Amino acid sequence: MTPQQITLIILLLAAFALFINGKLPPDLVAMLTLMAGVLFNVISPNDAFLGFANPAVITVAAILVLTKALQ
Question: What does pTM read for this prediction?
Answer without folding.
Answer: 0.74
